[in-house]
Amino acid sequence: MNCKDAEKMISPFLEDDLDNKDLAQFLEHMESCDECREELTIQFLVLVGMKRLEDGNTFNLKYELDNMLKDARKKLKARRYLVATSIVLELLVAAMTVVTVILAMTLS
Known about the structure:
The protein is mostly helical.
């Protein structure tokens, strides 16, 4: 992923609107690109920080953004696990269907 693609994904990331593939690429890029991480920080400040200031709440921008990125990594891991589990279950159902058909053919 290049910086231009990553910057386009910042807003969807902040809105928790990236699919697994895009989220994985985005997180990987953010870990390795200081310039994009800075742009993410700026947009996070604008989106979240300004609202907090308007509400009179205090916040720790770096801590909250770091937590958001950590939570995104956890969500991605959980999503990948669910996808893998569903594939395994589908394969088991397909195998059971084949076995059932074979048994039905041999018993008739």
